[in-house]
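Fill-in record for Succinate dehydrogenase assembly factor 3.
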Amino acid sequence: MPGVAHVSRVRALYKRILVLHRFLPLHLRALGDQYVKGEFRRHKEVTEVEAGRFMAEWENYKDTLQAQVLEAAGRGPGSVRFGAELPEQKLADFQNEQIGQLYELMLESTKPNKQFDIREDER
């Protein structure tokens, strides 16, 4: 059973990521929030080693996103491309299920999503 300190650290990371998602374009925020919630839910009952790896990867994501959000704040909305290249070495360590998830995420994030296309009223 995880200790109180670990649970607190996980919650703080989870909340920080969701706060950073508020700065993403709407369609990416919705997709990101859904993905993060699912991943944190799926990893509630993992081994200590898996939990350590999980937390390290999500800390890296948080740090990368935080840097991109700060860069966007300095340049203005729409001027920064969010995301990062995935090195082949890391991709080689993925399991088939993870590669499938990554592919689905890529498809979802690159398709035009009119559900979140918000425009001003032209009256």
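KEY FINDING: The mean pLDDT is 83.
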